Amino acid sequence: MNTGDTPTYLNLVVRNSLRVATPSLLALAATTSTYSQDDEQVYELSPFEVDGSDDVGYAAQNTLAGSRMNSRLKDTPTPLTVYTKEFMEDIGADSLEETLEYSVNMTPEMSQDEGDFGANQGTAFDARYRIRGLNADQARNFFAYEWDQDIYNIERVDESRGPNSILFGIAKAGGLINSSTKKPILADNFTTLNVTVGDADRFRTSLDFNKVLIEDKLGVRFNLLHNENGENKRPWVSRRDDRYHMSVKYRPFEKTTIDFEYEYGDVIDSPTQPFGPQDRASVWLAAGRPLTTSHAGSAEGLIGSNSGAGHYVYIDNGTGMVANHSGLAKTSISDAGFRDNHFTFDNNLLSDPSGVGTLEVPVYASLSGPLSMRGSRDITNMTATINQQFGENTFLELAWAKYEVDRFSHRMGGGVDLQGDPNPTLADGSPNPWAGELFFETRLERDTRLFTEDYLRATLSHEIDTDGWLGKHRLAGMVQSRESGFQRNSQMHSWVNPSQANDYRGGPFTKTAWGGQNQVKIRHYLEYPTDVSDWRVGSVPGVGFGSDWNGESLSMTVPFSALRYSSDFPEVDPNTPVEIVSDWITNRVKDEESTIDAKMIAGQSFFLDNKLVVTYGLREDDFYLFSPNGNGLVDPTDGQRNIIDRENALVQEFTGETESYGAVYHLTDQISLIYNSSTNAGISDYSDKDIFGAPGEQGGINPVPSGKSEDFGISASLLEGRFFLKAAMFETSSNNTTSFLQWVDGNPISGVNNLYDELEDLGLITEATNQSQRTTAEVGTTSGGSEGYEFTAIGNLTPSWRATFNYSYTDVSITDTFHEFTPWWEGSTGKSFFQQFASEVMIDPIGDLNEGATVADGIAYIENAAQARQALAGGIKPGQRQKKANFFTNYTFREGRFNNLRIGGGARYASGRIQVHPDLGVLEHNDSLYFDTVIGWTKKFERYTLDLQLNIRNLFDEDEISINQVDTAQAADGNYYVRNYILPKRRDIKLRAAFRF
């Protein structure tokens, strides 16, 4: 990593290689499939294309992922697995995520570092992946692509493990998952109509239409999709996809090919938290649901009260009402705070003598209810390429791509707790119609995000064959420009006073317009405890339904004395009624820009009669990042944080250099030795989130992530290349990666900012001080590494029998984490600043603190939370599964009474997640094992072919939870109870009918 101008030597090398160049980005990434090819192969297609329609069974022939050039897998050193179209069809995959459930050493799931206790990051964002325990990237046609993908227009998937920035720029240290879209086939006309039905309200239909318009010159391919589905055993979960993909191929001249693709997608989905509710009511229930106007104490499960004067709640039961719960008693099960454990199958039967006797908590309840979590996405993708051949061995590819995703999402504000209402009256003294009932409560947030990516790329390749001991060489040069944009507008549903003058700007109950006391609380009382769909948070009329994402505005009348600014106007009668309404208040705004200009040279050389294949490459990326500082400035006219501060933007320019080299030595035609080394560098995924800066500063650009990996292995190509085996040992490091950390004992970042808001609301600091000193950080950095070994076997054992098997073992460690917090906390705007207000009592205590907590308690909370996270450094990374194994096979009968019947199945195994426990040491929690099956039958009719296929995932309906953490504190009975876990996806049945014309 260095800064400054591009080195002269690299410019010279790139310019010369672009003139002389020859095919092969092969330098890098690749292998675990198989197919035997003639070493003297002459490419009839562009070396920058792989035709997935030539893949046979589970064994792909070639790959681009090894070097971005059409190369046989046997000669590429980097570990790579190819998932063919037939494999994806056999396992019944509808999405990239389902495909990768069978991948080696990859976990598409939440872990210790995947979101907060409420799982907002896991439900608000598209699927993310970890390979070898480290974050990985996605690509589409070898352009970076970070959004969810459906299989309807994907021909194949190449999964490269380990860093590979020499080819793809900002690929992470974990690896890269590339999907190749379907292109027109100029040799045939065909139409395939798929219709899939199943449980979980599944209906899916797709069309694949290929038409040759001019023989060998012009073709078009259309892929259409409509999909609707839910999730078994979980109400309220839903997804709908409408996607359209068109691809055109034109060959105006023998050596010229032009491709163009366009895709539009309209996606709406509502996932939910992958675990059950948290317990804040069991002690109160067992005590007989006592009603009281006082706080009886922990023996009856009554801990503190709703702090402040702004706990106004919209109740969605019946006709809906707004009630004042300010200062009223609340339930909990411990004095430590409200964040108590989630219910599991072991503790979900509650004693309820004053209710149903025994209350069963449905662990599979979808707590978000009708609130859309990920919301809607409008997806627009376009690509165009021109491939030109010069002479016999020189090829030029010019490529352009534009990806745009406009995403709107709702999410709950924090975790979801089962609570009880012990208050016989409301805050105004009126009777409480829901006294003694259980409820769920949340607040509502929403985001509008716009992502844009524009690419231009030119690649020139050339091949030289010396016909002697100097060998054969494939060389390539590439230049690429990538321009990215990111816009975000985040809002909270809050109470506002529509009649207030500028003197009253901010919120009615605290000055910060989006502050906790101004936020609208949404509550749903449990009326039907045996109905799993009733176990949910409340909903606001209109929100999350149809196209009215704003919902209906709520209104209520409060006395003037309830408003935060009433003391400034003693002449106003405190009983004067004031109307307040609900509205969306902006609390974060972003408008980021980044540019990456890349140059690359790479090559692949064959020596010793093609027994030794050496790959190598060098890449340089010039990064430019423009990030307006912070999360926006407060508008003085309305108190909202909606002004983008471009004048004080964070701007950074730097240069990253990456390299890759490796070798394959073919001991025999079947056995080969492999070595590979590669690095990565790039801009953080969260470049829009500023980390802590130096002491006294608000923040700075995230550090540049980087990584390095080495692989040593042996491979075998058997059965005339139809079956491929590979075993490899690896060691990978990853430095300065950023993520929404899973905090161990609270969130120190939100604690700091909430404490600043508290001081402003208490009138102890000014708004200007708050805005200039609060941190803009939302993420934390982590460095670490992984090491282990992998084994893969994949291929076509016979013309009727396909099989794949893989196994991996991985140790992941943390070498450093969240170190940026300490210098900031010890600076002038951190701990020393807060200490001068140590004795002040907070209005709305931060984190897990209870009523009456002081600023000193807040300081201790922040320090403890930060130190708990930092204490992970030097140990095993929590959340990782060390062992993973997958097997899948399918056999087709070719004759007899079972002719054209196929049957198969597979198993997916993963060892338990790791937890580093302060008392119990390193724990490995429960493992998981799921079985899948497939049965299919094909019948050819005169004018079409009918194919029927039944897929059952999780055949035996395994429902054991996957434990993330157990408590770090020992319970009174001596046990350490489950604190956090992930629910498995229940049995999923799909029946597909495919009509091929």
From TrEMBL:
GO molecular function terms noted in the UniProt entry: siderophore uptake transmembrane transporter activity
GO cellular component terms, semicolon-separated: cell outer membrane
Pfam families: Plug
Highest taxon of source: Bacteria
Coiled-coil positions: none
Domain (TonB-dependent receptor plug) ranges: 73-175
Compartments, as annotated in UniProt: Cell outer membrane
Keywords: Cell outer membrane, Ion transport, Iron, Iron transport, Membrane, TonB box, Transmembrane, Transmembrane beta strand, Transport
Membrane topology listed for this record: Multi-pass membrane protein
Name the UniProt record assigns to this protein: TonB-dependent receptor plug domain-containing protein
